[in-house]
Each structure stands twice: as C-alpha cells, then as structure tokens.
Request: fold
Amino acid sequence: MVNQQALATTAQHLSREAEFESLVLRYQNSVYNIALRMSGNPDEAQDLAQEAFVRAYRSFDSYRRGTSFDKWLYKIVTNLYIDEVRRRRRRPYVESLDERITMSGGDEIEREIADVSHSPETVYDREHLDMCIQSALAELPPEFRMAVILCDIEGFSYEEIAQIMGTSIGTVRSRIHRGRRGLRERIAPCFPARSGEVRPT
Amino acid sequence: MTCNMTQRLISAYVDRELSEDERARVRQHLALCAECMAVYEMTLEVKTALGSMAPSPCPECLWEGVRDRIAALPFQAEPERAPRLSPLRAVWSFARLVVPAAVAGTIVAIPLVHMIFGVSVFGPAGPRQQPIASSTPPRLVITTPAAKESGVARYPATSPVVSGQTASMSSSSLFGLDTTIRRGDNNDEHSSSPDEQLNLLLRSMQDSSFTYTWIGGSTHE
Reply:
C-alpha cells in the first residue's frame, strides 16, 4: 500500500529542490561574479559561490515567498563573503616601488619601472584595466569592497545596499566614499590622462 | 562649501544619492574648483570602469557542485505548519494551563485568608450561633470595644443604622464580603466605606480587643 504522507513529503521535497535549482541557475552568474570580485581568484570564487548557495538552501524555509529573493540571497552572500574573505586573507606581498634594490653583492641600485602611461594600446586594453581594478579592490577592507561592488557592478541603490548589508544608509555612503577614494588613488596610474591631476586626499 | 566637504559628497553625487540641496551645493563648488572637479571626474571614471568590467562567466560545474552538496545534506522535509486550533482545542489548551494554576492559588490562599483575617472560608466548624436565612448572604461584623471608642472615632462612621437594617447594606463590602462595623458600647451598627473598614481591620489585627463576628459563624477574639 502506498503511503500517501510519504509521497506528499517526497513531492514537496522534489518541488522545493526544483524551485531552488531554478533560482540558482538564475542568480549563479551574479553570485559568482561578486565572489570573483571579492576574492580575486576564480577557484576561491567558485568555493564561495557554492557555499553561499548551500547556505541559502539550508535556510530556504526562512525565505518568505513573494518577497525579493535576490535581496535575501545577497544578504547571505554578503555576510559569507565578508567573513570568509577576511578569514582567508593572505598577506599580500608588498614592496615599495621607491625602495632601492639591494644586489647580492651589497650594492644598491635604483629600481627601473617601465612607463606605460604613453602607451595608449596598454591603457585602453580592457584586460589590463580590469586587472588594475581587481588588484585595487583586493586592497580595500572587505566591507568597503562589498559596498562598491554592490553599487557599481550590481547596480543597487544605497537603500538596497543598506538592507543587504544590514547597516544604515549613512554607513553605506561612507563605505562607498572611502572605497572609491582608495580605488581612485590605486587605479589612477591606469588612467594616465588623470594620474597627474588627482592628489591623494 | 569646502573642498573637504565636497570631496566627501562626490561619490554620492556621482551615484545621485544626494538631496537636492546637497546636490546644488556640490554642483556650485565643482564649477569653481578645478581640484574637486578632477576628483569628481576620476570618481566617475572609477565607477564606469567597475561597471564595465567584463563579467566572468560562471563555471558550468557550479550548480553541479551545489546539487551534490545539497544531496549529501540529511533529508529535511519542509516543516509542517502548526494546524489551526479548533475552538474546542483552544479552550482545552487554555484550560490545561490555567486550571492547575488556579487550583494551586486557591490552596495557598485558603490558609492565608484564615491566618490573616481570622475568617474561616468554609464557614464555622461548630454549630451555628445564628441560622442564616436562605435569602440573606453571610456578613462580617467588626465590633469595636467600648474602651477604644476614642480611637475608633478617628474613623467616623457615616449614617448610623439600627441593627435590623444592616442586612440591607450590601453596598458596604470589604473584599466582596458584606461587612458592618458595630460599636461595642451601644451595639449600634454603622455603614462605612470600604476604606474605613480596611483601616479598622488592619488596626484591629494589632489589637486583640476588636471582635470579628461572622454572622452565622464563630467568633474570633
């Protein structure tokens, strides 16, 4: 004899999985992209995106149907990415470009840096600019990075970012201001036409 | 507006997240300040550059990885919503909580009332002194001693009535009991306010010469 209750539960479970799958397929590009911009590393980004979806699945029951799924999902994504990126942060190798290089014999020489500012092909090379932005993003504190990504890459308003990040609009405004100020200083060399005009503030 | 203030607002200006007033002030400053204008243009370039970063396609295997991890999770059926209580069940679940509490409260209250007020809740243990007419509710009579008359006078009784009329003074009630004050010297009974009765009762708890009579009950001295 077929157990009606078990059948109903299984059907419910399957329909829940199907619903969740369609949501994952719809949002996976965006969730992965944010993870990539946050971590700067494709493998890590894939890990983060998968973990975010598994967490979302676990608390899928707490998501109220009919409300904005993306805000709910990005809240999970934001909390996870900020925590994980901070936890996994590797000490970047930092070297001052102004420092003289000490040779094996003990002699010191001036560092020579190729001047790319006069090469328009390089400046307008999309890939180069993206790499430049990505490395600048990596140097921002995770909260500033996330606020800038949500604003400039995902196109959310300050109010929406405040809801996603669980902060006030004033905090969002401050994070974006400080994040962009950091980016401006770091990626100015990628914009040779402007690099001489902006002084660090 | 100073350069410092303007540059703090430039990001929100670029994002169109300023009030009209702030926006106008920033615009005004930018028209006059080359340095802030350069910051504004650079901020705009940063925003544009971020927005036009080539989106990296998500790896094909992302959903597969999620699906495998979900499948490995212990099976979780969606928790069923609690069924709505039928009115009968609602009454039962309410009664199940309240009735034991009420019973416990009563058990505690009976000896307390007996101890504090000297009133037997269950009525007299011995033979009744005055049979109560079936239509007359039991009442409490506080008798003040003649010697304490001057003390009692501080709680003046209003509208003295004769003994025979006290049964009708149902408005004079203390804790819901029909209560009467009787002066010890002339046996007159007075209707009195519940406040006055309470005062007398509290006073008499320290003074053993007051008498309580439970009409139809025993006398405690």
